[in-house]
Amino acid sequence: MAFETTIHLKDCPYSYSLGENVKKFTLRDNTFAETKVGNYELSRLLENVPNSGDGFLLKIIINKELSGVKINITDKSGLRLVNIFKSEANHIIQEKFYFLMNSLVERGIFIKKDQ
Known about the structure:
By secondary structure, this protein is an alpha+beta fold. It has one domain: Lp2179-like fold, CATH 3.30.1820. The protein has helices spanning 24-29, 91-106, and strands spanning 6-7, 14-18, 33-34, 40-47, 55-62, 69-74, 110-114. The protein has a 4-stranded antiparallel β-sheet. A hairpin with a 7-residue loop joins strand 4 (40-47) and strand 5 (55-62). The chain is globular, with a radius of gyration of 14 Å. 23% of the residues are buried. This is Cysteine desulfurase.
C-alpha cells in the first residue's frame, strides 16, 4: 500500500488527512517510533479486554517527508487486513480506534472529516 495524503478505511464514517503543521518532534512526543528507513510508525493492539493480548493490530506509518500516511488494521499476526467497522460486534474496538485517532487529531497530527 502506497502512502496517501488522505486515508479512508472501509466502512469508517471518517477520513483522516495529515495535519499541515505536523512536525517530527510532535510524532516522537506521541509515541511514534522512527524506523530504519526514516518513517514514523505507531503500533497499538486494539483489544476488547485490556491486557488480554487478543485483538487487532493498528499500524499508522507516516513517511519521512511528512507528506503521506498509511493506516492498517490487521489480525494480531499483522498478515491479514481486518475491517473492524463492518460488524457491530466490534463496538469496543471501534471506540478504542476513535479514541486514539481523536487524540492524534487534537494534537494536530491528523485532520478528521466526515464521509
